[in-house]
Amino acid sequence: MENQLHYAQLSNQLRIAYTDQGAKQAPTLVFIHGLANYHKVWDWNVIPLSATFRCIAIDLPGNGYSSRQDVAYSIDYFAKVLIEFLDVLKLTQVILVGHSMGGQIALTASLRFPERIDKMILFAPAGFEYYTPAEAVLFKSAITFGNFLNLDETHITQSITSSFYASSAISKKIIEDLNELIRNNDRVLYRKMLDACMNSMLDQALFASLHKIHQPVLVFFGENDMLIPNRFLHPVSTVDIARKACAELQNSVLVTYPETGHFVQIERMQDVNQTISSFLHNKL
Prior knowledge:
Layout: E1 6-9, E2 15-21, E3 28-32, H1 43-49, E4 54-58, H2 75-88, E5 94-99, H3 101-112, E6 117-123, H4 133-146, H5 153-163, H6 169-183, H7 187-203, E7 217-222, H8 238-246, E8 252-257, H9 264-267, H10 269-280
Parallel strand pairs: 3-4, 3-5, 5-6, 6-7, 7-8
Antiparallel strand pairs: 1-2, 2-4
Helix pairs in contact: 1-10, 2-3, 4-7, 5-6
């Protein structure tokens, strides 16, 4: 059964779309999607995990069915919105689950508001790959020159397809939904949000602060991730990036899968869901 969409009214007329499934008294997992995505990329995890946990999947501001305002989008902005969202739902401590940019948002929230975060589960998180200031400038220039963040229907198709190790009915459904969202919303405002998010991900260097994170962290990576690392700037393997970053965390478990891309939580859904349950029951 498809989850019902709810809305939380935050300050500054910001409305956050989210789904909420599972027993209210159960430990709460809050799922945060990546750049240019939406809450439904978590369906293959939320539905089975909600048998044991309360699972809340949000649409970040500017994405999905949440408000699309002309504001200064950044990783810090998203982290603050996340905490306000938890306040509105009266959630004091949660387990953050983040994918890609959503992983960087989760890490930032844990650094800014550590008392609110119990544990973290990260899938191919942005922020694990360290960019020098010069590399960040070079990357931004390449994005601008290549117009990589135009993300019209053709670009969305290419971006999502390359994020999976193998195309499937699931990846095609995600492409279809995201393209419909593009067609139904202001493209200029959407592009402005994407540019701001990419700049913020590159400008906010998290690697040097990873050692400050005390919460238990479960990290997943696909070994054939085509987005992490940037092969031009960092000609190493995805596993190299993952191991180096996890070594900085105080308490982490790293799981990698061969023949798996950026959407590891979907491509390895059964293994991932079982591992999450074991982690949250302290069996890893």
